[in-house]
Write a structure and sequence with these properties.
Chain A: Keywords: Signal. The structure holds two protein chains of two kinds. By secondary structure, chain A is mostly beta strands. Chain A has one helix and 15 strands. Helix content of chain B is about 10%, strand content about 30%. The N and C termini of chain B lie far apart (about 50 Å). Classes of the chains: A mainly beta, B alpha+beta.
């Protein structure tokens, strides 16, 4: 055991000097298989391996238009420990009784660094359009400057590829009044007219929302949102006789538990 | 007046049988002083007794046999109700007065429906009497009684608390006063326990769960657009303020991260009294009054002062120190300080204990007559963390950014040549006159940036002569650790034969805490040989204070006082600092070693120290 300790000497009069570059680091509390840190199965601390359960509805909003108001939701729930969690993400838009953009993900999430998680699982496009199933793999976390970021790549049951990139940022105007720009992009390798998806950058859903945190877990907001199709998808949507994009005034509630 | 206690407390009976016209807080006074809080008086008899909190008065004589009943009581304070575990129906529990040299017997009966335990904080006991389930014993099951029995080798001010399932965070704690055998060098006319704490109706598990989802859940003092003009003025320009913000933002950290849990949910208490209940301690002008401050909080460091009075610090963590006159001191969670004041004027003096993050304060009054109130000073500005707290030494924010940009923090062998890493702080003057034996060093090296660690203190500095963040240059004489000098030389003159370096680490964003980048459940025990003399060196890589408590063994703080280094049981490690203390492993057994911010402890900043 002694041999494993750092070969470091205290030299009289000259202060501490480390042995040349051969210093071997050794932690006094290094994990040792079979070492006893507590009696029986009684843990002296209870929560360091606990599982936690939370869910958040980032968006639950009405998007106003004279011809009819759409309802949009975007949120997730997760359950698990510091390292291993199960995520369920859900988003969709309800317009005139028609459900679109319904993307539901079930992901296993593994913490891999200070701020980042790897996520893998399944996405199902579940709405009034044709159902598609995708394998999903991506990252989620906090980029520099406290920028929330998610990027997920998908491969479909029909051998197609897609990607979704999302980001948001909280500007604190005051401690409770928070301005949040947010954007989500969807990309595909091939078009899928039945789902109004085009090859390349297909659609974008973005918003600038101003929320007031009455409580941490309950914040009404007002916002301006844009939802639209781009490039090839834009033509597809036009050909189907629909508007390819619109800016809407939105009212909603951000809440979590 | 004390008839509400369900179990016989010898000390209390003596007190209740006596009549003291100067008693500061009779029950009638308490009830009538509640004013708007009159609902308290409508509670059932026992609950009413419980909310009476503590007078801070010691039992008149020490006793060596105590029956302590742990149960739950509905307690309401400042509009916040909790069915709180406690001892004897009060929060804090009864003040236990013992006598040095005697053997005390403490019969703790558990009327909860879960396991409980009592840990005697700072008391040197055999390890099976230390009261930590999983290390000392199995805990006290529901309906059972456990008899603690140990001889008292020490004297001074200490405290006790549960070490089970966050019961301490909800109210299971109280004060211990041990009378010295030899005449007390600090004899006083009056003697009060000042037990500082917090009260909330939010359950500990919910608090931690909220912090797991949002680490600044309880912080409402962030830097915002609205606060920018003031920051710009303070920083000497908008660009400087912006640069500082970007530096912190780039690190995904907040300079405003002072306390994890704040006055947003906590009511800060003094002897169990909310500030508006105005605890009273009486004095006659000219008398010497001893105040035994105990920080029994869960997550709050307090900055204590009594405007208009000089405080003479005479004891730290139960051990006498050479008196230090101060205007203010910071008391970390689980520390104790005894101070002597001598109010000369016939007026009220406010005991003012503001939380480190300045979101609230505990308050009481020293007064010549009951019911008086002194002026309550405004709270100081909340501290703001700097690059010193990040372990960047004294670099300016602009300079530090280059270092933060180093991907993965390549801290190989060059680290050892950095000026901040030299060992000049290690009390070499003290060691100079001794032979220099080879010393084994357990150096874990800088902890890697990982899921469980957010930062590496590149240039940790000695901060023992700093009173702490928010107290520097505030115009008052504020106690610092360097001023603590024991009244007698340490008992063990041997130099350490081994050094154990530990990094205090954490990831605020995920709300994970540990040592050396690991949680408790991922770490082995720290093994000491019985009789071994060890130097513990703490490097704080986090940006928060951590009051580190070693059970069972003294921590002799190496603060430049040579052989007169103070003996402590809990030591604040300041953010970005490197400090050390000596330990003689003289009692065998398994000992808990942990941060006394309870949520840090319970999330992993905890180790088992095995002495064998």
């Amino acid at each position: 055991m002694k041999a494993a300790w750092a070969a470091t000497m205290l030299l009289a009069g000259t202060g501490m000097a480390y042995a040349e570059d051969t210093t071997q680091y050794h932690a006094a509390d290094a994990p040792v298989p079979g070492a006893v840190t507590h009696l029986g199965n009684i843990m002296p601390v209870m929560m360091d391996q606990s599982s936690w359960f939370h869910g958040i509805l980032e968006q639950a909003e009405g998007r106003y238009a004279p011809a009819g108001t759409d309802f949009r939701w975007d949120g997730e729930v997760w359950y698990g420990t510091d390292y291993d969690r199960l995520w369920i993400k859900s988003e969709g838009t309800l317009e005139k009784g028609h459900l679109s953009d319904g993307q539901q993900d079930i992901l296993y999430s593994r913490a891999i660094s200070t701020y980042w998680n790897l996520q893998g699982g399944v996405r199902v496009d579940l709405d009034d359009g044709p159902t598609r199933t995708w394998g999903a793999f991506g990252i989620q976390g906090l980029a520099l400057y406290q920028f929330e970021f998610q990027a997920t790549g998908y491969v479909s049951d029909r051998g197609r590829f897609g990607a979704r990139v999302e980001g948001s940022y909280d500007f604190l105007l005051t401690n409770r009044l928070i301005l949040q720009p947010q954007a989500e992009f969807n990309l595909y390798t091939k078009s899928d007219p039945a789902r109004q998806a085009g090859a390349g950058l297909s659609d974008i859903d973005a918003g600038l929302r101003l929320r007031y945190e009455l409580w941490r877990k309950f914040a009404p907001y007002v916002g301006v949102t844009y939802s639209g199709h781009l490039t090839q998808a834009r033509r597809i949507v036009r050909d189907q006789g629909e508007k390819p994009g619109s800016v809407r005034f939105s009212l909603g509630i951000r809440s979590w538990f | 007046m004390r008839s509400g206690f369900p179990a016989p407390f010898p000390g209390f009976q003596l007190m209740s049988n006596s009549f003291d016209p100067m008693r500061p807080l009779t029950r009638r006074r308490f009830v009538t002083s509640l004013g708007a809080g009159a609902c308290l008086s409508a509670l059932p008899h026992k609950a009413q007794a419980s909310t009476r909190a503590s007078t801070g008065l010691l039992p008149l004589t020490p006793s060596n046999a105590w029956d302590l009943k742990v149960s739950r009581t509905h307690i309401s304070l400042d509009g916040k109700s909790m069915h709180a575990p406690n001892i004897g129906g009060t929060v804090p529990g009864p003040i236990l007065r013992w006598k040095q040299g005697e053997t005390v017997t403490l019969n703790v009966s558990n009327a909860l429906n879960e396991t409980t335990s009592i840990h005697w904080h700072g008391i040197r006991v055999p390890s099976n009497m230390d009261g930590v389930p999983g290390l000392s014993f199995a805990g006290i099951p529901p309906g059972k009684t456990f008899s603690y029995r140990f001889r008292l080798h020490q004297s001074g001010t200490y405290w006790y608390h549960s070490h089970s399932n966050m019961q301490e965070a909800m109210g299971l704690y109280g004060a211990i006063v041990i009378d010295p055998i030899r005449p007390d060098p600090n004899a006083c006319d009056r003697d009060y326990v000042i037990f500082l704490g917090e009260w909330t109706d939010v359950m500990p598990h919910d608090i931690v769960s909220n912090l797991k989802m949002q680490d600044d859940y309880y912080v409402f003092r962030q830097r915002t657009a609205a606060s920018f003009p003031k920051e710009a003025r303070d920083a000497g320009g908008a660009m400087a303020a912006l640069k500082d913000r970007l530096a912190w933002s780039r690190m995904n950290m907040a300079a405003t991260d002072i306390a994890d849990v704040s006055g947003a949910i906590y009511t800060y208490t003094l002897n169990g009294n909310a500030p508006d209940m105005n605890w009273n301690g009486l004095f006659r002008p000219g008398e010497r009054v001893r105040l035994r401050f105990i920080n029994g909080a869960t997550m709050t460091l307090f900055d204590v002062r009594i405007p208009g009075l000089e405080m003479l610090v005479v004891q730290a963590d139960g051990n006498d120190v050479e008196p230090v006159p101060v205007d203010e001191f910071r008391i970390g969670v689980a520390e104790t300080y005894d101070v002597i004041v001598q109010p000369k004027e016939d007026r009220a003096y406010t005991i003012f204990a503001q939380s480190e993050d300045r979101t609230g304060f505990a308050r009481g009054t020293l007064a010549p007559r009951p019911g008086m109130s002194g002026l309550i000073p405004p709270m100081d500005p909340r501290p703001v963390r700097t690059m010193v707290d990040m372990g960047m030494g004294n670099m300016k924010p602009g300079e530090s950014m280059d270092h933060m940009a180093m991907p993965g923090m390549d801290h190989g062998s060059d680290m050892k040549n950095m000026p901040g890493m030299d060992m000049s702080h290690m009390d070499m003057s003290h060691m100079g006159h001794m032979s220099m034996p080879k010393m084994e060093i357990d150096d874990p090296g800088p902890p890697p940036i990982s899921v469980e660690n957010q930062n590496v203190a590149m240039m940790p500095i000695d901060r023992t002569n700093s009173p702490g963040d928010g107290l520097e240059n505030n115009g008052r004489r504020v106690l610092n650790y360097g001023q603590l000098r024991a009244t007698r030389p340490g008992a063990d003159r041997r130099p350490p034969s081994r050094e154990i370096i530990l990094h205090l680490t954490g990831n605020m964003d995920r709300y994970i805490w540990g040592f050396n980048g690991r949680k408790f459940s991922e770490s082995g025990p720290i093994r000491l040989k019985k009789g071994e003399r060890v130097r513990f060196t703490l490097i704080n890589d986090t940006m928060m204070e951590h009051p580190i408590h070693l059970h069972g063994l003294w921590s002799e703080l190496e603060n430049g006082q040579g052989d007169y280094r103070p003996y402590k049981h809990t030591i604040i490690s300041q953010p970005g600092s490197r400090m050390s203390y000596l330990v003689t492993a003289d009692i065998p057994g398994m000992w808990a070693y942990h941060c006394h911010l309870l949520y840090h402890m319970d999330l992993g900043m905890f180790r088992t120290v095995v002495v064998s």
